[in-house]
Amino acid sequence: MRRRFYRRNTMTITRRQLLKLIPASTLVALSAACGRRNKPLPTLTPTPPAPSPEPVARAFLEAWEADDFDTMYALLFHETRTALSRDQFEAVYRAVFREARIYAFETELVAAGRLSVDQAGADFDVTYRTRLTGALTFRPRLWMRLEEGDWRITWTPAAIMPELDEENVLKLFPRVPPRGVIYAQQRTILATHGVIVTVGVVPGQIQDEAALLATLSNLLGIPPQEIAAKYAEQPPDWFVPVGLISAETAQANYDTLARIPGVELRERAARAYPQGERAAHVVGYVGPISAEELVSLAEQGYDENDLVGKLGVEQAAEPILAGRKGGRLVVLSPEGQEVKTLADVPARQSRNLHTTLDMALQQVAEDLLGERKGAVVVLEVSTGRVLALASYPRFDPNAMANLLNPQQRLAIAQQPDHPLVNRATQGVYPCGSVFKIVTMTAALETGLFTPQSTFFCSGVWTRLGIPMTCWKRSGHGNIDLFNGLVESCDVVFYEVGLALYNRDPNLLQTFARRLGFGAPTGIEVAEAAGLVPDDAWKRAQVGVGWTPGDTVNMAIGQGFLLVTPLQVARMMATVANGGTLFRPTLFDMAEDVANSANTERFQPETTGTLGVREDVLQTLQGALSRVTQPPRGTASFVFRNFPLPVAGKTGTAEAPGPGGEPHAWFAAYAPADRPQIAVVAMMENAGEGSSVAAPVVRDLLAAYFGLNRDLEARSVPTPARV
């Protein structure tokens, strides 16, 4: 094969020849640019690359999390802002959050970068916390375009959820179980379902706005401009609540409202209390959820339109009565076709709550208490079940739950005699001589005294250098410890208190706490802990230490001591049943009518034992039985000829109040030989316990055991209770 050789031609071009090749017009331009022949050409600067889209995406997400829609809107591409006003932009977000029941969210930028010369994108993860459908996580994309050298967001609703666009809409189908019914024994209804009607407007359906505003303003008592402001800037197909009316009002005005395009009525659940004021403090009431409750209950499905229990069993049994909401969150096409299901969460059935209350006995307790400030408590001694819990002043739960009249609710709450306070569980008082049961228990169990230990009462006691009187100014003379409780001799218990202090300044407090004082009992409804004061408490509150006089005062139920009527009733039940402290309970059964396997029965629950010798208990029980018997019992005149043996203790507690009258107490259990119930009556600033409180307990026992046919007897056969 012949090789081919190629010769490279070379050519030299002189400067003069090069100039002949350049057009004259170009030379003129170059000469003007350079100025002089020897001036250098300007340096060329390359066009800078477009900035990263990441800072813009991050700024948008941070503004969103800060609820800063002004900043978000300022980051939008100009064409987006031209098509969508700032308020419309925010309204889309608000509408999605409202429909999906979103109460919190968080975002995290995943990646951001250029997709072409003038287009970029940023992917991010967003997790929405919803009230009905749990946590929902999406990965939307923020699309961006260059505008005057900066990236701006070409926004659509898909930036909230990828399934949304200019046409698709979000729709939630809630599943809300009806609130459970509250029953007393024998299925007496205490709280049940009611109905209230929401009057609303669908903006896109309005035809005659003036007529609509005039009619609704007249019906709801709201100025027309306020009504118009409620639905202004809202999506045209949204139902916008305007006001509430009763079902009766809705029925009476239905024809008028139905003829006005744009007006829509929707029923919503309310609450009804058939017993009115009866057992109001036990039952409680429901009311609009507060901001604090909305935060704490958000993950349980509650939203700003919900009602929640505010007091009593309604509050304590909220999870039982309300169940758990669920819902199905879907994306719909403009034609209403389902595009995608985003979440589907079943509801958890609510349950009915059966309480331990005996409404016949509750009525007797309230009638006997009358219009005297105070409380009456009845416990079953062998279980701690609450059979009656009366408190005065009372209130009507229907008024407190009335959404149509919030001023009425506020007026009740602000009454100076505090009718919403359950004095049986939240009222704290000195209990006077009823506390001598604790003092005697400590005296006997420690071995400092025996039932036969003798004392002398002249009517005045001066062992601490100041005269302290007995309630019986003439004195009891020679008296032993056993009869000291029967006759409630103060001097006996001054001596016992001093001896307990000398043994141990905290000894009396120890026994008070053993009997359940100074701490909540554990009952389901709101209660106060009371106060068993000691050296640490007094130094913190008063600035000085505990003294012998403090123990001596507490030994007769005075001084800094504070107790609730429920705590006293539990003490009596504990002595009656042999030393077991039961948690007082109002809950008997949570009933699931749809699924019996989900029905729950509440069993008695012990919280401790008294932990004293059997002979100590027998001495206490014997002395308490003699309190209602002649010749020495302080309540014997009240129970004279009473056909049932009753064990009890009177108490007259010095306390500030109207006219300086003391609190009247009587605590008892019956029958004394086979105890079934413990009863406590306490009336504030009412006088002597024996003459004011003891008759209330007597008459209640007569009604419970069917001994006095002039009083309402229980509905179950008498032999089962005697």
Describe this structure in words.
The chain has 722 residues and is an alpha+beta fold. Among the domains are: 54-166, NTF2-like, domain 1 (Nuclear Transport Factor 2, Chain: A); 182-298 and 306-354, Penicillin-binding protein 2a (Domain 2); 432-627, 3-Layer(aba) Sandwich (Beta-lactamase), CATH 3.40.710.10. The protein contains 26 helices and 28 strands. The radius of gyration is 40 Å and the shape is elongated.
What would the principal axes of the Cα set say about the shape?
elongated
What Rg, in angstroms, do the CA atoms define?
40 Å
The major beta sheet can be summarized as: 7 strands, mixed
Distance between the termini: 135 Å
Number of strands: 28
DSSP strand (E) fraction?
A: 15-25%
CATH topology of the domain at 432-627: Beta-lactamase
Give the averaged pLDDT, no decimals. Answer: 90
CATH architecture of the domain at 432-627: 3-Layer(aba) Sandwich
- Superfamily at the CATH H level of the domain at 432-627? DD-peptidase/beta-lactamase superfamily
Give me the number of helical elements: 26
Assigned CATH class of the domain at 432-627: Alpha Beta
Helix content: 25-40%
The structure class reads alpha+beta
Q: Which regions are unreliable across 5 or more consecutive residues at pLDDT < 50?
A: 1-39, 709-722
